[in-house]
Amino acid sequence: MFDRVSGIPAHPLFVHGAVVLVPLLALVAVLYGVWPGSRRHIRWPLIAFAVAAPIAVFVSKESGEELSKQFGDSPAVAAHEEYADKLFWFILALAVVSLVMAFMVPATRESTAAIKAPVVAHYAVAALAVVLAVVSAFYVYKTGDSGAHMVWGS
pLDDT by residue (tens digit) across 12-45? Predict the structure, then answer.
């Protein structure tokens, strides 16, 4: 399943999903966490990206492992796979925190009065989302950069 799509290696095709969805999840999670005025507009996109981004990273990672079987192991491939493994765990954590944030932090000012959860918990979840977003963005960059250097050789 992760090997080829219409005869073309799947990894170069699937990786574009991760390259787009990880930064989008990171951006929307940070906005949702730090800008209360945006919450009612971006709650559902946050939920959608929190579901789609880890799936895209997983599919990219699995297709990359299939592709590496064809070319063998090298230090560059090992480094690329290590970045991808870390990216998967950080994006999964960001997705979970984003979903918690989407259902814990009120989406509108009117709903703020109805929710009695401690404000400190809201800030803690938002701060964790920001940290995970930055780390996820870093690892999507490092994974992509190491893969590009392998392919384009610079």
Answer: 889 999 999 999 999 999 999 999 888 889 999 9
Tokens of 68: 């590496």
Query: In this structure, are residues 1 and 97 in contact, taking their beta carbons and an 8 Å threshold?
Result: no
Q: Contact at 8 Å (CB) between 12 and 147?
A: no
